[in-house]
Design goal:
152 residues; mainly alpha; two-stranded antiparallel ribbon; 68% helix
Length: 152
């Protein structure tokens, strides 16, 4: 099985577990004399089976991530950590740039007007954020390529 296939199965299991959880929660109690729409024990058994499979997949994926490498020699684990930090940094830069954008809000105190001005170079921050986003996309593409080549 390819690493990417395992990741797709993991995603599917997580979706199925969420659906089972919702079904179990909705049938966790019924009016006295009524029966639940589905047998809660069957749903719990299925959820437990899925959780065991998920655990096995996560272990296998983590092992594969520590073995598989990008062209430059970084393991997938290292590359994913870098991608996570790039995404964090992009959000950080974008938030600061958005907060610094001058608004048209002006407040008057008697004869004086209060005007807000940015303390950072918004255009430069946006350029840095764009560069980080590009690096993140490129790294993600490399990660995805390795996912379809690496065996679990």
């Amino acid at each position: 099985m390819k690493l990417a296939e395992a990741l797709l199965e993991r995603k599917d299991i997580l979706k199925r577990l969420e659906v089972l959880r919702e079904r179990l929660v909705s049938d966790a109690k019924v009016q006295e004399g009524d029966r639940p729409a589905q047998d809660p024990e069957e749903l719990l058994s299925e959820a437990e089976r899925l959780c065991r499979r998920l655990r096995d997949l996560v272990v296998a994926v983590n092992r594969a991530n520590s073995r598989a490498a990008l062209r430059d020699g970084r393991t997938l684990t290292e590359a994913m950590a870098e991608r996570d930090v790039l995404q964090l940094w992009h959000g950080f830069l974008t938030a600061v740039a958005n907060a610094a954008v001058p608004s048209r809000d002006r407040f008057s105190l008697g004869r004086q007007e209060i005007k807000y001005v940015p303390t950072v170079d918004v255009a430069a921050l946006r350029k840095r954020a764009d560069d980080v986003a590009k690096a993140c996309r490129e790294l993600d593409a490399e990660i995805q390529a390795v996912n379809w080549q690496a065996e679990l």
